[in-house]
Amino acid sequence: MLTILVADNHDLVREGFKSALQELDPQISILGANCIGAVLQQLPANPDIDIVLLDLGLPDTEQFSGLLQIKETAPDTPVAIFSALDDQESVHAALIAGADGYIPKTSSKMVILQAIRLILAGEIYLPSILLQDSQQANSAAATNLPLGRDTATGLTRRQVQVLELIEKGLSNKEIARQIFCTEGTVKAHVTAILKTFGVSSRAKAVIAAKAC
Q1: How far apart are CA 34 and CA 51, in angstroms?
Q2: Is the pLDDT of residue 122 over 50?
Q3: CA-CA distance, 96 to 26, in Å (whole number)?
Q4: 3-43 pLDDT, tens per residue?
Q5: 173: buried, middle or exposed (CB in 10 Å: 19+, 13-18, 0-12)?
């Protein structure tokens, strides 16, 4: 049975989720909390919680302090921000703070369900319009290099960035948060990096890059 904790200080939002999320699991259990204090009480009392949907506007938190507290209390429980804010700065800051996804409140029911499924599968969810903006920015940045590639390594600018974060010991999910993309995109970059250097591991790719 799927268990979701909806943290929002508006009763209508919490009640609305009860019917909207039934499609995820007919036996779904929807828990509610109207403040971070209530969330922190419910997490240890309900260790089977699969995901937390967190509004950034809860009365007893500032910015991402509530998210940080949740991650400290239950680091393995995915947290998706569910907010009226949908600008790139807010999304990026949430990912850096540890969010596993960012769902604007203007999203359709279908998008919300798809986002939750993606996060439950271990991916990071970002609003599609923000992904498009990020991809356009990355493409524009890549044109500053000949053919969009680093002349020493043969990697694209984005792949160089991923490799630098790999060297720092970051996981794919952590890298995705840092460079503002999905974990699947990071995996694709890692695969391309390994292929470029003809190696079979991330560590060997770092060594090969330093030899260039």
Answers
A1: 16
A2: yes
A3: 33
A4: 999 999 888 878 887 778 888 888 889 999 999 999 999 99
A5: middle
- CATH class of the domain at 130-210: mainly alpha
What's the Rg (C-alpha) of the chain? 19
What Cα–Cα distance (Å) separates residue 178 from each residue in 129, 156, 166, 183, 189?
18, 17, 11, 11, 14
pLDDT at 146 over 50: no
Q: How long, in residues, is the chain?
A: 212
Answer whether 51's CB lies under 8 Å from 120's CB: yes
Domain ranges across the chain: 3-126, 130-210
Q: Which CATH superfamily is domain 3-126 in?
A: Response regulator (3.40.50.2300)
Say yes or no to pLDDT of 129 above 70.
no
Of 134, 142, 143, the closest CA to residue 182 belongs to 134
Q: What whole-number distance in Å separates Cα of residue 84 and Cα of residue 57?
A: 9
Residue 125 contacts residue 182 (beta carbons within 8 Å): yes
